Task: inverse folding
């Protein structure tokens, strides 16, 4: 597995998560407050990725940390969409 090119996988996952957040906001499954918190989480992951890529590459540990943060974010999105708080 080449971590140098794995940023694309991270980017694709993050893009899908942002789409889920926006769809949840539009459908009413997410309140504006919930969406704001979830978007903040996405921005933190993005900043983390930018920091890790400052040297032009992503090492295994950096990739694993980003992967775990995206897993956590996915769980957070799922939980907020299913918590019954409708706007």
Result:
């Amino acid at each position: 597995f080449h971590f140098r090119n794995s940023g694309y996988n991270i980017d694709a996952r993050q893009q899908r998560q942002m789409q889920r957040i926006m769809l949840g906001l539009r459908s009413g499954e997410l309140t504006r407050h919930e969406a704001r918190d979830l978007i903040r989480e996405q921005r933190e992951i993005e900043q983390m990725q930018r920091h890790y890529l400052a040297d032009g590459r992503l090492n295994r540990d950096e990739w694993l940390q980003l992967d775990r943060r995206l897993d956590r974010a996915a769980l957070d999105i799922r939980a907020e969409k299913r918590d019954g708080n409708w706007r």
Remarks:
- The chain has a mean pLDDT of 91.
- Residues 36 and 59 are 30 Å apart (CA to CA).
- The chain is about 75% helix and 0% strand.
- The helical segments are 7-27, 32-52, 60-82.
